[in-house]
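hey can u check if this looks right to u? its 130 residues, i copy pasted from the old doc so theres a chance i mangled smth
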Amino acid sequence: MPQEPSQPSSAGSEPNQPDNAADEFEQAISEAEQSLQLLKERYAQVRRDQRRQAELQQRREQVRKALRTDSNRGSLQAELKQIKEQLETIELNLESRLFSWGSLKEPFWQAVRFGGLGVVVGWILKSCAS
């Protein structure tokens, strides 16, 4: 009678590996979807801010022109001040999308690392020169 080939005794642990890999893959997809959603929201916010910035800049120019010709200076100056404040806020929001701690993290630590290395090399050279 022919014997059936015996299966390895570790067969019980192998079915968990595909499930684990599938779970990790699903989690990675979920994280990518969340990141994409956050990116879409940020992009929409940037677009809104850019449109609002253009509108406010146009209105600021209109108010400046009206300020030169109109006698109602008080209300126009107040509106101009308010427009400037809104523009500053929008510019700060737009700059924050370009400037973040994440973008500075690597250059910061490189500066710390090489600056520290420079100090150590300087001490060594000074002690050798003495």
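The CA atoms of residues 78 and 84 lie 10 Å apart.
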